[in-house]
Amino acid sequence: MTTEHRAAPRSWPASASKDHDDGAHEPDKRTGHGRQRTSVPGRIWRVLVWGAMVFFLLNVVLLIATVAVNSVATRWFGTLLPQGFTLHWYAQAWGDFQLASVLWVTVEVVGAVVLLSVLLGVPAAYALARVQFPGKRLAMLIFLLPLMVPPVTYGIPMATVMYKVGLAGTLSGVILANLVPALPFVILVMTPFIEQIDPNLEAAARIFGANTFRYFRYVLLPLLVPGMLAAGLLVLVRTIGMFELTFFTAGPATQTLVVALYYAVFSTGVRAPQSIDAMAMIYMAITLIWVLIALQFVSPTQIVSRVKEQKQ
Prior knowledge:
mainly alpha; 2 domains; MetI-like fold
């Protein structure tokens, strides 16, 4: 009788026992000891990274601010701020360094490089994106080689050849020298852009009776305009700041703004540092304006080159 009325052992839910067992081995979250052990190195690393970034940016900002203030200072020596401010140094730099002719040469070089690189680079990028042929990857590597090596590596031999054939010191020579890295850059930007365009659009245009010119004019060109505009703006910014190739091939009458700034700093003679700083601010303002315009049309994170997947 006692065995019949004996109470059955009380059973606990499986989930509750599992939670109880897991809780026995987990660190107490209220104390936070386990979390502190793993987060302290991470916090130290974040502090070091942010500290280095802030230190670098602060140095850049202070350097630019020093040049900007000195370009408008009447006299600045041994004091926190200049004794007065003036725009006289900008007028003096404009006359002493002949900035009118230098800026015109810069416009000519940049405009010609952008136009030629887009006209030649877009068809080459279209061929690399659409046509499959043996050695395609090798051809892509050869096209992008000027972007992978420093300009000095091929700039000195190229300048030597230009001096022998009489192109060095001329406007055509400066344009050709700057075209060497600009053309691969357009191909780098436009190839993945063209790969995103559906090839069936061409077939549909052919079905409706469009010839090659009509297909290019009314179908392909409107789709290519955003990429061409982005590539052209980026090439423009690169060409304005291209120093090595322009320095090797430019003459006294074919100097761009960045080369003229270099000669202004290191040339012989006594020059007011304020006028040199004023010239540097003009160069910086022109470059910054074009960079901001370029960022409105293209994001640096989207400038990638990918190899087209092979069809299964």
